[in-house]
Write the structure tokens for this entry.
Amino acid sequence: MVIDLNKCIGCQACTAACKSLWTDEPGQEYMLWNNVETKPGRGYPKDWEAKGAKSGWQGSRLQLGELHPPQDFGLPVRLNVEDVYFKGAGGQLAAAEPLTYGANWDEDTSSGEYPNNYHFYLPRLCNHCTKPACLEACPVRAIYKREQDGIVLVDQDKCQGFRQCNRACPYDKVYFNFVRGKSQKCIFCFPRLEQGVAPACARQCPGRLRFVGFLEDQGGPIAKLVYQWKVALPLHPEFGTGPNVYYVPPILPARFDADGDFDELEPRVPMEYLRYLFGPGVDAALATLHDEMERRQGGRASELMDLLIAKDWKSLFNIPDVKVY
């Protein structure tokens, strides 16, 4: 999957589509197999990047991080429903105890100083990595990677709840179902793919920002964005897992200088932060994006811009016989 961050409006349609389809069972209340974070921000679960830097692959060695306490996810809200509706207490519904964190705690919170403050949206899901740390860490080999498409799955019959996968994944995209005693995660909507239907998060996205296909297909959109144009980059490549979800880095409006004029020389989002997220290749990727945008604005053709604009939504999905529903 390639996700174009320049088109994400943070509407959470992908989150709602995934949540309603896959995680509506007991023990899954806190699970967001797909979520959209405001960056810079602490993310979900809280400070997952700090934990990720201490887990995953450190060279050729697998390192296990610490498990997140429940407070890093945000506890389920308990409202005073009984008192208000059935015991005559009146008043308004309120939480029984104050929340200290949640999935969208930092939503729309900018960094920097006005008028050059900034933020952008970053959708996250399991990366279905080439070298999954979760798979390597599982002591009973309950996690496997499908040969036909590379999707990483947890065999619910084999999983015994050791939670080593939760500790190993640097992206914190493996969740634990405390009711069933099993680890669970994004399945890349493989039952839909097998029917020629795109993953729910991609199909329900109103911004047409998610491309789905095989990385090895040289004529497909994924290979063009990753290999040909080199504008799609993995998130935190230093974690060493070889993630297969890529991101087109964000280009925000130009900064203002001291006179209130546009400053095109210094990007609004600091380059050091973008390098932190996407690695050193982000400089060249942004230069390519700027060059191709200027080509299009000058009336010249740009294959890259046509690809990213995706006027035909079917062009996003390099799936055999992709269906329209």
Remarks:
- The CA atoms of residues 271 and 283 lie 8 Å apart.
- The first strand starts at residue 2 and ends at 4.
- Residues 282-297 form the longest helix (16 residues).
- Residues 2-76+101-316 form a domain with the Alpha-Beta Plaits fold (CATH 3.30.70.20).
